[in-house]
Amino acid sequence: MKMFILCLLLLGMVGNSMAQEKGNTDFQIFVGDTVQWTPFEKCDSIKYNITNGSVIDLSYIKHGETLRMIGRKSGNCTISALCGDSTSRILIVVRGKIIEQGFNGDTMNRPRKPATKVFSETYQFNPPADHFFISYFNPLNRSKETFCKIGDEEAYNNGRDIDRFWNTKTGKNYYYRPEAQGWTPDVAWEFQAFGKSFFPLNSFLREMPDGDLSQYYVGDEEVRGVKCWHFFVDQANGNVIQYWVDPSNGCTLRRQVNESETYEVVDYNLNYRKWLFGPMFKKSLHDKTR
């Protein structure tokens, strides 16, 4: 009888131990893609352990409650989060510029290559450095990501639950809390500035094939009112990546792999001069003005 009770206690201990670990989550992204992860609904103090963190650019949001991760180079990264006795883990798989197949292992249809044309222009990458409001559709999470910049102030919205505003000179940092007082101060300098450029604007520059671009140029096509160069690039593995590039600055406004859904710029304002949202619009502590 004592042995039976002891077995029940041991089983209960194992069950409690297993209940303390949350299920694993996998993210599969391309270089330049952004994802976010909140390991626990509520936790006052989270400790993180990161393996092979060089494949991502990592920033902490809401005092470390949420992680924002951007694919930096091909590889796998594992992150463990510890809150008391509870553990949560994720695996991040970052894919590079050559895509062998779809995320689910299925081979995607490949379009036929149109006739190429002589490309007599010179490709140069000179992305907007200030006064821009740029949004693009991300087909991986079916959301619209937005990047804005005026002088030292930058804003980012992932189209779901991340809405940030910061100053690259003073380090002031804010996030939007719709359930509370709207724009809320965050820890100073806990943000990642945009830098020179971001995906997908820089995708053709980063993935540009070697040799004469006349091998890939198939004509011009309009994207968001811009007459773009259209490049059709065959990969060594038989896959295809197409790019629609703004001739004025070399930025990619649309990118498509095989016949999958496209990354595409949907807002493209390169003369954005006045903020119409942000923490400076707050009138009181409980002003929720976005």
Question: How do you describe this structure in short?
Answer:
The protein is mainly β and 290 residues long. The chain has helices spanning 2-19, 203-207; strands at residues 25-30, 34-37, 47-51, 56-61, 66-71, 75-83, 86-95, 132-138, 143-150, 153-157, 163-167, 173-177, 182-185, 217-223, 226-234, 240-245, 252-257, 263-269.
Describe this structure in words.
There is one protein chain. By secondary structure, this protein is mostly beta strands. The protein is built from two helices and 18 strands. The strands form three sheets. The chain has an eleven-stranded antiparallel β-sheet with strand order 13-12-11-10-9-8-18-17-16-15-14. Strands 1-7-6-3 form a four-stranded mixed β-sheet, with no helix packed on it. Strands 2-5-4 form a three-stranded antiparallel β-sheet, with no helix packed on it. The longest helix has 18 residues, at 2-19. Residues 1-23 and 97-107 have low confidence and may be disordered.
Give keywords.
290 residues; mainly beta; 11-stranded antiparallel sheet; 4-stranded mixed sheet; 18 strands; 8% helix; 40% strand; globular; disordered N terminus
Question: Which helices and strands, and how do they pair?
Answer:
Blueprint: H1 2-19, E1 25-30, E2 34-37, E3 47-51, E4 56-61, E5 66-71, E6 75-83, E7 86-95, E8 132-138, E9 143-150, E10 153-157, E11 163-167, E12 173-177, E13 182-185, H2 203-207, E14 217-223, E15 226-234, E16 240-245, E17 252-257, E18 263-269
Parallel strand pairs: 1-7
Antiparallel strand pairs: 2-5, 3-6, 4-5, 6-7, 8-9, 8-18, 9-10, 10-11, 11-12, 12-13, 14-15, 15-16, 16-17, 17-18
